[in-house]
Amino acid sequence: MNAPLPLIDNLEHLPNPYTQYPTILNNLKAGVRQLEDPDYARDLQLALCFIYSYNGSQATFNSYRREVERLLLWSWYVKHTPATTLKRDEIEEFIHFCNTPPESWIGIKNVARFKNHMGERVPNDEWRPYVAHVSKLDFRNGQIPLSEKYSLSQAAIRATFSILSSYYGFLMQEEAVQQNPVALIRQKSKFVKKEVTRRQVRRISNLQWDYVIETAELLAEEDPAMHERTLFIMNALLGMYLRISELVADERSAPTMGDFIKDTDGNWWFKVLSKGNKERLVSVSDEMLNALIRYRRFRQLPDLPTVAEPTPVIPKNRGQGAMTSSRQVRNIVQHCFDQAYYRMCDDGHKSDADDLRVATVHWLRHTGISEDVKVRPKEHVREDAGHSSMATTDKYIDTEYRERHASGRKKTLRPH
């Protein structure tokens, strides 16, 4: 089975499907013969309108595009029917397909869906609907992804069910389908395993953090021009539990120094635009405020931000404006992790250092929340973290694990 071509371009290149759908259709018709049929053309238009409604968040748009586009491609090329005609058993068949797609549909690296050619956006024939990955540590050890080892995680399966159920709910509102076939699947448990216990939060240890932040401080002393920014980024990610998207500029927002706000009591807050386009205020601790002052002094700014100060929080390496590359932040954090790992190994802590080989930026957020929830009211931590429910914050409370392990530590292998 040959690999299909992509259907939906990146958000910045996608015309509004509500008003410019004929343009999108004409650009795709040459490579997708199904679109000569009005039923398939309508199928695509509905999908585009649904996905485009999530244009307020690049990450959400990408997730919904991935799932709906896979469904359309499978429905068109495997079942040879528009997705609006699929029934419950066919949706189950699609989930099985996602678990074990043919090798021709699996890539071993992320490539652009579309590319520029003679002033036009054309489908990239190297793109694949599914991509095999290896772990961060395996990749660093020289292993490469193999299409035959592709697998779908439990989290990915849950996302597929959730997004497709929303999609068919939209189709019902548009009177394009009579029922939601995803909602009719009663035994989702055969696809999604129920967790029998709460998963532990992926975080770095306090010893690892001590080495990481000390490493950032040493780097800043050796090369301030390069690494004062590194030090501030590390402190901000842990100290305010920020996501990368809340630190770099994107189409929704560009964090500025004016987002640091002092209230009438003299307390400092940092205003961020978080998931779901919701603004929240994060409390700024005294130590975080000192880290901000140090960073501002390096940048030859007054110690504290002024009201509505437009200075970018994280500037570009070159040129004007705010940093827009989340990959650049990941590289900065990874360099810090790597240097801390080597220092820990040199100090005889290799076994304690190993997590730094697989840790990601998001682990810093988890670490900050996990430590704060030990000493602060969890309601306050929830607000600072931007969790939608207390259940999410509760996942960071590991008292249950500590007590459970303490009670089991004295178990004997030779009962009396």
From TrEMBL:
Keyword Metal-binding in annotation: no
Gene Ontology BP terms: DNA integration; DNA recombination
Domain Tyr recombinase: 202-410
GO molecular function, one term: DNA binding
Annotated region described as Disordered, given as residue ranges: 378-416
Subcellular location, record wording: Cytoplasm
SUPFAM superfamilies associated with the record: DNA breaking-rejoining enzymes (SSF56349)
UniProt feature, compositional bias: Basic residues: 407-416
Keyword Transport among UniProt keywords: no
Bias-annotated ranges (Basic and acidic residues): 395-406
Gene Ontology cellular component terms for the protein in this record: cytoplasm
CDD domains registered for this protein in UniProt: DNA_BRE_C (cd00397)
Keywords: DNA integration, DNA recombination, DNA-binding
Protein name (database record): Site-specific integrase
Organism the protein comes from: Marinomonas piezotolerans
Organism lineage string: Bacteria, Pseudomonadati, Pseudomonadota, Gammaproteobacteria, Oceanospirillales
